[in-house]
Structure prediction request, 368 residues.
Amino acid sequence: MNFPFAALVALLPALEQEASENDGAAAFPREGMAHLRHLGAFSAPLPRAWGGRGYGTEPAGALGLLRLLRLVGQGSLAVGRLLEGHVNAIRLVARYGTDAQMRRVAADVRDGALLGIWVTEGVEPVRFHDDGAAIVLHGEKLFASGALQVTRPLITARAANGDTRLILVPRDDAGSASLSVGDVSGMRGAGTGRCDFTGVVLTPDALVGQPGDYLRQPEFSAGAWRGIAVALGGIDRLVDLLRLQLADRARDGDPHQRVRVGLALIARETAALWARKAALVAEGRGFDPGDVAATVNLARIATERAGLDVIELVQRGLGLSAFVTSNVVERILRDLATYLRQPAPDETLVEAAGWFTRRDLPQPEGPA
Prediction:
């Protein structure tokens, strides 16, 4: 049975409405997340052997996941961020963990668990002490999406010898978490906050993989393609709203506005082509690891550029109405601008361009 994409498309207006209603109070999108869980979006990333569809964990699931994340991004970038983090965590456990760990994750997901990947350090970076019988954590994570709702965060932590490890932390309650990371203007519905892990005691099987796995290439860079897919959904929605609102105001016949619509469509399709290429290269087999990392990094920059271009075109095309809070465009502009702020864009572009100066980009083959 295929994923119920038609039902997801029908859900998008409700996701968008909830995102707008929750924006002022930075409320978590509980209803939207529940609907997605009912559709099977949170179990789809599980490998097929564990009851999922392999979206993000098997090569055959690449384009299915691209479509899923893009559609969710059209409805709500905040929900898309939470789903993307959930996929990321499952992917890392599937890639680096043991069968026993994957079995436990699959059971937790079927029971409604929400996973996430939290890596940004607070004032006290997360460290752990392993005495062979127990693991004791100390420190906090910042900018943790779903800080109060993620029940199985996969975090990075440093051992006494300096090794960085991945640790899967079961959380029965969110008492150690808060939303006190500052009042960000966009992506407010993602529930971003901080979490203090000081004093948390775990069994040794909470350690996932080997030292350094989180930063291992090409996986470390390649995973960015999933964020690209969500951002593409936000770009989709802004382009559609630009067209619809210009038509509603009978301004779609103005040649200058038509130029803006044309440029916005070009930007969107450029981002879509790069997103598809990144998905096929990142999830495919037989590609050089350097080619994978550099291709996804170029796709990341191309999508950022497309998103920024569309933001400007929408603001100029709709004028002051794009800044009126009752217009859904105003929130989506903030959400997309925030979502596009990924770290080190200049370094990312320079490294990717340097890699391909003397090499051709890989040309993946995949179903249309």
Notes: Residues 289-318 form the longest helix (30 residues). The mean pLDDT is 94. Strands lie at 115-118, 127-130, 135-138, 140-144, 152-158, 164-168, 177-178, 193-196, 201-202, 207-208.
